[in-house]
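Good morning C.,

I know you're traveling, so I'll keep this short. The sequence:
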Amino acid sequence: MDDNSPQAERGPVVNRRNALKLSGIAGLASVTGCLGGGTGASGGSSGPIKVGLLADRTGGLAAAGIPMYKVAQYWRDQVNDGDGILGRDVELIAPDPQSSNQQYQNQAQKLILDDGVDVLVGGITSASREAMRPTIDDNSQLYFYPTQYEGGVCDEFTYVTAPTATQQLRPLVDYMMENFGTNAYFIAADYNFGQISADWAQIYVEEAGGNVINQEFIPLSVSDFGSTIDRIQGTDADWVLTLTVGANHVAFYKQAESAGVDLPMASTTAIGGTYEHQTTSPPVMSNLYGGWNYLEELETENNQTFVESVREAYPDTPYVNQMAEGVYLAMRLYEEAATEAETTDMESVHQVLEGGMSIDSPQGQVSIDPASHHLTQSVTVTKVTDDHSVEILDSQDGLEPTWLQDNCNLDEESTWSDPRTDMLKPDP
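The tokens, ready to paste straight into the viewer:
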């Protein structure tokens, strides 16, 4: 576990009920004022609807977070240029967590307790999500996690608008096995996303009769991959799976290219998440394959219109990544659910969402699975060419979060007042 893990940084959980106790008698008036002012806490019907966004704009995760912030602003502008939601404008409250799990925890508490947000969206790493989730759960806060991840969140208050490892990795591993061979070498970020995603990938490799030659788990602080590259070149690997995260880990691709590594590589983080095909010079990312629910290059008419509209509104958007679409899906789903519920009361909005809402999106139609609060959506397998353009190879529509459907059962075994708030480790 890296030093930036939620376990290393998690402090005492604060909630609306114990905030008064922690404040002391002298702070009673000010705390009461904070709690009474937010529509999220009260389900009020006047004033702006408050949407909290936590996405890094500085630090090692900024490349992923900046597009999320741009798309959130775009959505807010579109809503407010119309009739708002329920006739009310949207106020986007978006502090910068600075790629720090401690800041995620602190800012989530402020957004929930002080600002009284009606909905909270955000988090990039699974560690950042888990740093926030105790406060989210203890305060019955409606929350959307918009980033692809390892899978396993089974939480009454949480909706996930990005794919799980089971949705992304199966099509990608199958493609790599069929086209390049059965011997795989894994490198992954050393925290729960990388570790559990690697577990899933190993299951899929072995089910197809393949072999994982070696697995390496790399701390987020590491940027020297010389020894890893030497080990890869010393094996008979047919291809490499990279589940790396953050600015430091981009160095792996540059160093591998310089060292003459000519193996095909596969990833569910590079390109779609952090668009290295645009931030590095060809041919660093050549021959990298990916499995994405979304990336800017998707050729659907809806997507091209979406990308052009975002760029027109915010020309400095570096890339519309899959986390940005995850934010857009979260905010669209919230908009539709609040409109149908005719209120911002979080439990009422949640009941509409859990009913299995579907919307059209840049990637195509997506729908909420009531049992898991995850999306049924499409996954596209791509290749980065020598000039760093993206070639579409295959697409599968309607991929369900099957393992969570079978193990979570939120629609039958959990309620808003008696919630299930688990983190399940995929172990099929």
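Safe travels,
E.
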